[in-house]
Design brief:
This protein has 326 residues and is mainly beta. 3% of the residues lie in helices and 41% in strands. It has a single domain, classed as Glycosyl hydrolase domain, family 43 (Tachylectin-2, Chain A), CATH 2.115.10. The strands form five sheets. Strands 6, 7, 8, 9 and 10 form a five-stranded antiparallel β-sheet that branches. Strands 18-17-16-15-22 form a five-stranded antiparallel β-sheet, with no helix packed on it. A four-stranded antiparallel β-sheet has the order 1-21-20-19, with no helix packed on it. The longest helix is centred in the N-terminal third of the chain and has 11 residues.
Length: 326
């Protein structure tokens, strides 16, 4: 009797955010030229408009190496691939005057009004004592980018529009722009681990990378946390009807944990750490979102930083605006 009651209670519960459909790997180390496939992270997927000259494919998947000197690119005519590597790459480290050591974490958007492609990215900056900062680059074709090298905020920007303003999350810190995302004013942290300093973003339990999706007056935030064991993809929401300085991440739940061998599920479970993951690990990170035809696709880095995979999410809301669809 107790078992029957338990089963009835379970059936009455809403569907878990973790009930996703894995679509498999999109990018693997073997697809990249020799010597640079040891680290794969930071996906950002966009659909290239017809006005883009010499379009390689319908979909451009930008990604990075944690210590790479240029932003990688793969392209395909179908969302799920197969993807082909564009070996020359796109934005280069030497194109950004204050940038040092590496460029990574692309966040790419299509600006239909100006027919340009915008890429937010990060790099250590000579202007800020080698601290990692976010920058903006623009392109007409999605291959050749230009940047003025102006610092916008801290690293790992994910940008979205709401109302009459543009916003960004840099890790857990919120930013606001009134000039269409060319410059930003810093705001509060939307989340910090219990007992941690919200301004020390690399402490265990704090957000590493985030992805965002506007659904009406709600912002869905997908993220992973440094120090989790295993590091997994989570989701929370923000009520956008409140003043932006009061935005706080709530309703946090786990969306996806490592379960497949190619996600690192067969490796030891241990707390993740800040920075580059040099070896395979039982960990998922770097969520990115893409929405098409009412479907929401989640891209993420697997086994630490050893490839990029995709899953289909049964979102709680039917129509929203994922990053990359400005």
């Amino acid at each position: 009797m107790r078992l029957v009651t338990l089963l009835l209670l379970l059936l009455a519960l809403p569907a878990s955010a973790g009930q996703v459909e894995r679509l498999g790997l999109l990018i693997t180390p073997s697809m990249l030229p020799a010597g640079i496939g040891d680290n794969i992270d930071g996906p950002s997927l966009v659909e290239m408009p017809d006005w883009v000259p010499n379009r390689l494919g319908r979909y451009y998947l930008y990604f990075a190496h944690h210590k790479g000197t240029y932003i990688r690119l793969a392209y395909a005519d179908r969302i799920e691939g197969p993807y082909k590597i564009y070996e020359p790459g796109t934005l280069r480290l030497d194109q950004c005057r204050p940038c040092e050591n590496h460029v990574a974490s692309p966040d790419v958007h299509i600006d239909e009004a100006t027919k340009t492609i915008r890429m937010y990215f990060h790099s250590p900056s000579a202007f800020s004592g080698h601290e990692q900062m976010s920058f903006l680059a623009t392109s007409r074709d999605g291959l050749n980018f230009q940047t003025e090298g102006a610092e916008l905020g801290i690293y790992y920007f994910r940008v979205f529009d709401y109302g009459d303003a543009t916003y960004a999350l840099g890790k857990a810190r919120l930013y606001r722009s009134t000039d269409g995302g060319k410059s930003f004013v810093g705001g509060p942290a939307i989340y910090s681990a219990p007992g941690s300093n919200p301004q020390r973003f690399n402490e265990p339990g704090n957000i590493r990378h985030a992805a965002v999706r506007v659904v009406g007056d709600t912002l869905e935030v997908y993220f992973s946390r440094q120090g989790d064991a295993p590091e997994s993809i989570m989701r929370g929401t923000i009520d956008l009807t409140k003043p932006w300085l009061d935005w706080t991440l709530t309703n946090i739940e786990t969306v996806l944990k490592p379960e497949m061998p190619w996600e690192g599920a067969n490796l030891p479970v241990k707390p993740s750490h800040a920075g580059k993951e040099a070896a395979q690990a039982n960990a998922l990170r770097d969520p990115a979102l893409f929405e098409d035809g009412g479907k929401v696709f989640l891209l993420y880095s697997v086994a630490g930083e050893q490839g990029i995979a995709m899953a289909l999410i049964p979102s709680a809301a039917s129509q929203g605006s994922a990053k990359g669809s400005r």
